[in-house]
UniProtKB/TrEMBL annotation:
InterPro entries documented for this protein: Pr6Pr-like
Keyword Ion transport: no
Originating species: Halopolyspora algeriensis
Listed name of the protein: FAR-17a/AIG1-like protein
Swiss-Prot/TrEMBL keywords: Membrane, Transmembrane, Transmembrane helix
Residue ranges of the TM segments: 42-62, 74-93, 105-125, 137-160, 172-198
Length: 211
């Protein structure tokens, strides 16, 4: 059984966390040189926020020994869900083959490498305790707050971070609601799946210990 304090695992987490933060920092520096750049807009993308959060989490997990507190495991599981949301929404709704202003390698790191890395981390480093499914659904609260922020701010300033949040881009308010409800259902399903995967591994460990 691998544990979070074994040095190779900690080293990989440090590298991945640093990579996520480097990618966000590089993209910020790149866009800051462009006309009309808005720092607030930059940090209004779920992709940016989720990658900053997961970068900091991985650095903490890699740098600090004994970081397997139940609450931290709950946060780690939540970040798996958020990164899965980032990766899947990009793949299904946003990947047109043209990264736009996003640097190609940054695009790959933020939308592909980090979501996959967090999922593998969750499969390899199993949680120590059972995760309640009700609490797992609470992970949806962060994306809901993000959507509320994006819609309210977009209505005020006329700028939305993603086209599926802008009614004129998706066939009106009905089209926007379909996209939002679909994403919400996907996040809820991902939350339950991540909790189940963790609980199955916890249960198998307990059964082996009992045997």
């Amino acid at each position: 059984m691998l544990a979070s304090w074994i040095w190779p695992v900690r080293a990989v987490r440090l590298l991945l966390g640093g990579l996520a933060l480097l990618a966000v920092g590089t993209q910020f520096t790149h866009e800051a040189t462009l006309p009309g750049f808005s720092p607030v807009n930059f940090f209004s993308y779920f992709t940016i926020l989720s990658n900053i959060a997961v970068g900091l989490l991985l650095v903490a997990l890699g740098a600090l020994p004994g970081t397997r507190h139940p609450r931290l495991e709950w946060v780690r599981a939540a970040m798996v869900v958020y990164m899965a949301t980032t990766g899947l929404v990009y793949a299904i709704l946003l990947d047109t083959g043209d990264p736009g202003l996003t640097l190609p390698w940054v695009n790959t790191v933020l939308h592909r490498v980090m979501p996959a890395a967090l999922f593998v981390d969750w499969l390899v480093i199993r949680p120590q305790r059972h995760l309640g499914y009700g609490k797992a659904l609470a992970w949806s609260g962060v994306p809901v707050l993000y959507l509320a922020y994006s819609l309210v701010r977009g209505a005020v300033i006329g700028w939305y971070p993603y086209p599926f949040l802008q009614p004129v881009e998706v066939g009106g308010v009905a089209g926007m609601l379909v996209h939002i409800l679909g994403i919400a259902a996907g996040i809820a399903a991902a939350s339950l799946l991540v909790a189940w995967l963790g609980n199955v591994r916890v249960q198998s460990t307990q059964m082996r210990a009992a045997a």
